[in-house]
């Protein structure tokens, strides 16, 4: 059985996360806002408040503060000293990038335990006793990647996030098997700092309401198709005595058919897309 040194796991995990996070960033689309080495200005302000210190720019965060914030807010909160090597790092990286609750949800879904975003004895036991930690890491990161793709900021930051997950997976699985050999560092963060990925940026699911309006659902529903059907029903008796009215009725039949087919197709797409977003983010 692999012997875990919690101090070592935190130290090497922090070193990897800092490489992934990069330096200072304040991208207008980043929900984290001003961020230095993964610590946002809001988190830094709260930390300085607890220390009885005045606020200052996160650009000036020192090494002791940085380590204290990472240890207390992102490592200890998730009780990562209790987790297997590699798994603790993967959860830690997610904690920093998307928040502790969200990262723990990915872990719990991968384990198949109650997903409440809080690490308790059941979550720890399930992780420790999991028969294949390489596979567990892959499952955690699959949930994470699906979540990231459901964010409206994916088109902007997706390339960096995907590279980060690839690097995290390689490192986590190596550590899970006891391999301490140096691993390549993802180069994207050295060029461009990583950006936060929060649930607040989940893109809105398409609404099937347009499809429902197009396909009707009964005249009482007031749907567009139902309204056209009403007009068609009223004009049909007159079509026998007027070529113009007959052509209008034929046109209405065609329009109604197109609306129905298009509405059904869009309704299928909208419900499928909504289900995928729900699966990735709930």
UniProtKB/TrEMBL annotation:
Membrane as UniProt keyword: yes
Peptidoglycan binding domain ranges (all copies): 103-164
Record's keyword terms, sorted: Membrane, Transmembrane, Transmembrane helix
Transmembrane regions: 248-269
Residue span, TtsA-like Glycoside hydrolase family domain: 15-99
SUPFAM superfamilies noted in UniProt: Lysozyme-like
InterPro entries, sorted: Lysozyme-like_dom_sf, Peptidoglycan-bd_3, TtsA-like_GH18_dom
Name of the featured protein: Conserved protein
Lineage of origin: Bacteria, Pseudomonadati, Pseudomonadota, Alphaproteobacteria, Hyphomicrobiales
């Amino acid at each position: 059985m692999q012997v875990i040194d919690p101090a070592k796991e935190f130290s090497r995990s922090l070193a990897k996360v800092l490489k992934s996070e990069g330096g200072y960033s304040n991208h207008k689309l980043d929900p984290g806002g001003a961020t230095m080495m993964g610590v946002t200005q809001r988190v830094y302000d709260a930390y300085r408040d607890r220390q009885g210190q005045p606020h200052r720019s996160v650009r000036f965060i020192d090494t002791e503060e940085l380590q204290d914030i990472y240890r207390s807010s992102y490592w200890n909160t998730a009780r990562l000293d209790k987790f297997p090597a590699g798994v603790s790092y993967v959860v830690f990286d997610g904690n920093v990038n998307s928040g502790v609750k969200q990262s723990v949800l990915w872990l719990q879904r991968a384990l198949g335990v109650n997903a409440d975003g809080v690490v308790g004895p059941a979550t720890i036991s399930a992780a420790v006793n999991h028969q294949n930690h390489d596979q567990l890491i892959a499952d955690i990161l699959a949930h994470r990647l699906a979540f990231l793709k459901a964010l409206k900021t994916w088109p902007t930051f997706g390339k960096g996030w995907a590279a980060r997950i690839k690097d995290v997976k390689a490192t986590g699985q190596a550590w899970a098997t006891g391999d301490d050999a140096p691993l390549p560092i993802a180069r994207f963060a050295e060029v461009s700092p990583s950006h936060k990925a929060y649930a607040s940026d989940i893109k809105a699911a398409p609404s099937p309401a347009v499809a429902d309006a197009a396909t009707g659902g009964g005249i009482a529903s007031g749907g567009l198709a139902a309204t056209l059907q009403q007009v068609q029903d009223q004009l049909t008796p007159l079509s026998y005595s007027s070529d113009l009215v007959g052509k209008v009725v034929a046109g209405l039949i065609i329009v109604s058919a197109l609306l129905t087919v298009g509405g059904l197709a869009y309704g299928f797409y909208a419900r499928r897309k909504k289900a995928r977003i729900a699966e990735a983010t709930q």
